[in-house]
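Lecture notes, continued. The same structure-token format from the folding unit now serves as the input rather than the output. Read the line below as a description of shape only.
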């Protein structure tokens, strides 16, 4: 049963680096190029120093999104937006514990809205935030940059953190996805997957070069190689 949890590797292109004037076409193009999820970054110029899109835009892309929409909330407070994103077509909703006064309540709200629930840990957020809530989560999202902007460099100290979260997840015996977000490229996908990640967000690495299919395929093949290396280690 343990091997089933690692049977899938998901690549989640982040729309943050897409052409916002052609968002529907970009969603279609990236799905045709092999995207497993659409990563949708929501920023509020309060929890993070940037401002992006809300439920209206999620709803607008919903008819193009034939794969699950993975909503990453970088907003404070979060609770009021959860039913709105669920209504707008989100399949997964993740939030940062620092942005909620009541983390347990927010997780339950996401689940009650019919979505998979994820908790996001910034590079400096300790793993203890998972202590009393991991059993209720469907996903742990580890930030490998400080949230707010696309195109930043991967923070290497997150690699041992991925390994530690992988151990915690495996100890639960439940299927909980382990997603990595920030600075993911083909060049580091091998090490990220070897450390135990199963879901890789990539914004600039997918949309930056214009060749979506090649970009997704190279991240995926390097990650699959890393997973094999990790399984042997
Ligand atoms: C950053 C966002 C990321 C971002 C990743 O706060 O959460 O999803 O789009 O972009 P890259 O892959 O370019 O680092
Ligand atoms: Zn994100």
């Amino acid at each position: 049963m343990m091997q089933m949890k690692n049977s899938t590797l998901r690549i989640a292109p982040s729309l943050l680096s897409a052409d916002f004037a052609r968002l529907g076409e970009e969603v279609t193009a990236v799905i045709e190029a092999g995207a497993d999820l659409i990563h949708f970054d929501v920023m509020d110029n309060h929890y993070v120093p940037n401002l992006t899109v809300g439920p209206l835009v999620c709803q607008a892309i919903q008819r193009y999104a034939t794969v699950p929409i993975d909503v990453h909330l970088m907003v404070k407070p979060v609770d009021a937006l959860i039913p709105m994103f669920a209504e707008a077509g989100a399949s997964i909703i993740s939030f940062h514990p620092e942005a909620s006064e009541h983390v347990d309540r927010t997780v339950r709200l996401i689940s009650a809205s019919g979505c998979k629930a994820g908790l996001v840990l910034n590079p400096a957020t300790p793993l203890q935030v998972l202590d009393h809530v991991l059993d209720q989560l469907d996903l742990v999202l580890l930030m490998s940059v400080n949230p707010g902007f696309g195109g930043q460099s991967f923070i290497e100290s997150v690699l041992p953190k991925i390994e530690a979260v992988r151990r915690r997840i495996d100890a639960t015996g439940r299927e909980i996805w382990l997603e990595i977000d920030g600075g993911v490229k083909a060049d580091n996908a091998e090490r990220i997957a070897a450390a135990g990640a199963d879901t890789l967000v990539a914004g600039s690495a997918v949309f930056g070069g214009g060749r979506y299919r090649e970009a997704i395929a190279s991240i995926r093949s390097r990650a699959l190689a890393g997973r094999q290396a990790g399984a042997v280690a």
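Point for the exam: Residues 14, 39, 41, 72, 181, 201 surround zinc ion (ligand 2) (CB under 6 Å).
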